[in-house]
Amino acid sequence: MTDLKQKKPHHHGDLRNALIRAGIDILEESGLESLTLRKCAARAGVSHAAPAHHFDGLAGLKAAIAEEGYRVFRNYMLDARMIGPDTPHARLRSICRGYVSFAVDNPALFELVFSFDAQASEQHGLNRDGSASYQVLRETCAPFVAAGQDPTPVELQVWSLIHGFTVLYLAGRFGPVDRDLRQFGPYEEVMAILDALPLAPQA
Predict the structure, then answer these.
(1) Domains and CATH numbers, the chain
(2) Structure confidence by residue, pLDDT tens digits, 159-177
(3) Where is the HTH tetR-type domain (predicted)?
(4) The pTM is what?
């Protein structure tokens, strides 16, 4: 029997966040299929019944982890955009690099974030968090959308290109995965498509 004194402590009143952090650690170490309420409880150093006070089953825990994942994902894109060159096409390249970097650094979290369908996202309150991440894309695509026009076609083109590349890249379709994408042919080919997006006249 495990000595409770040796279990990982959590801060009083912050058990929910301790369980979320434990879930993220499990994802990073063992992947999405290994994530269970019992394992999160053990990792956080609490009884297996403790998560029930904070989450509506495993789905609720996954939603809470995905919420944190969206926050981290958004910050990856914002940080990349902040340190990159300040031109419309360069900013687009920057958020795409942040997109891929998040996935490479957090593959299981990336999988979890995009595993919720629209109905499940709404049920667990993820639309707001997903929308905050999507807003980074929308802001960065704005210079390519003519004033008064629906921005969705441009946004979906960019999103589909970088998300599709990222999923294939993580799956090893282009060879070994490496966070450094400089001079990486398939990535540059995708970026070349985005570089060709015409700037739209603004009113």
Answers:
(1) 8-55 (1.10.10.60), 59-195 (1.10.357.10)
(2) 999 999 999 999 999 988 8
(3) 13-73
(4) 0.85
